[in-house]
Amino acid sequence: EGRAFEHLLCRIHDLYIASPNCTQPGFSHTQGSMYLSPYETQWCKQERCMDNPTRAAKLAEIWKQLTWLEENMKGPYLAGPKITLADMTWYPTAIFMEFMLPRVFGWPEIFYETKHFPKLTAWFAELNKNKIFTDCRQEIWDFWVQKEKEGQFESIKGELTDCSYKWVYP
Q: Where is the GST C-terminal domain (predicted)?
């Protein structure tokens, strides 16, 4: 049962967050909603660009999957008392979310607050006690800091004035 749950956690990540499930132009993974431009830029080719309806739907999907994860994780790690592949799968993506969701979209700092995701916050803090995870975090974080300095997110921020879509969760 434990191994099956671990595999389920990885499947949820891979199907609903990290995989576009299609290689055709215009299709993107859910996490791409955080950084793919609405029009062609030096960071995003036209065939990877994301329109507002798609971005808004994918942001809603991120919230939905984080809610599911919060409700179903075993603790202190995602699948229970020890670090598993599920933690190693979700953690790097959580760093993307940690960086972009508050900065670009105005979300709360979801891995540092206890109102919405207390178990995920505890999980993130627990993993951040481990040097392997903090080294991973630093490398990903530094990458996005540089992209932010270069202006990668400005095209997305310009679209967020369209109030006909929900950009901020909860």
A: 1-153
